[in-house]
Amino acid sequence: MSIVQDRIRDNMILAYERLGALSGKSTFVQTDRVQRFESDIPFGLFNGVFTYTYSGEADPAEEIKSLADLYRERGRKLAWVTYSHEPDDVIDKALAANDFKQVDSISGMALSLENWSSEEAGIPGLEVRAIREPREIAQYRKVILAGFGIPEQMADLFSQVFVDGPNADTAVIQHYLAYLDGNPVTTITTFTQGDVTGIYNIATLEAYRGRGLARATLDHVVRDVQAKGAEWAVIHATAMGASVYPKVGFKEEMTFNIYAG
């Protein structure tokens, strides 16, 4: 794995670790061979293995079964993440032996900020703010819940993990909210560790999609983190955003393959 791919992967793991700690809703477990999360959160990768190195002594299929059983005992399915630039037939076969199926993939993208400059012309009436005030956080919460289509019964838990908890850590996490003609329309959150800023929670209200708002908001945020000293920006993109982010300069470097069993 290259240094760039390390940055992409590690920022995601560290972000999940921090989110879980701030919300008190998940536990990060790290040994010399495994990094994983366990929780009662029924979304995302909060019940997942992010890194695993088999010992060469134990049977990988048996080790994966033992890990999966820990989650089944809690009433959760285990998500298992592999990486396109670290192909491993042994792990693939061990996952298949435990009936793990690939359920999703995420594009790991990176942008060097050393010589990056914005080409975005801007959108009339669009204002992007770094937010902290309670009223702004309430607006952010409303936009992200609607933008991601979070069911009402999950809204409070989602907000605890992705909205309220992160707002308590001003050192590394920042919420942004974009307003179009005064109306809150798009969200972004950044997570910074060292010289790398991860960009998360990109959501736009359905009625405002197709106008380039996510791209313009992302462009503003990248300029902001660049000015604060970040040397790299990374994004973990779903299929919906994968066509947007290269327009700002992000390049796909790897794929996260997500299995469930």
Automatic annotation (TrEMBL):
SUPFAM superfamilies: Acyl-CoA N-acyltransferases (Nat) (SSF55729)
Pfam families attached to this UniProt entry: Acetyltransf_7
Annotated Gene3D superfamilies: 3.40.630.30
Superkingdom to which the source organism belongs: Bacteria
PROSITE patterns: GNAT
Signal peptide start and end residues: none
N-acetyltransferase domain boundaries: 126-261
Protein's recorded name: GNAT family N-acetyltransferase
Species: Paenibacillus glycinis
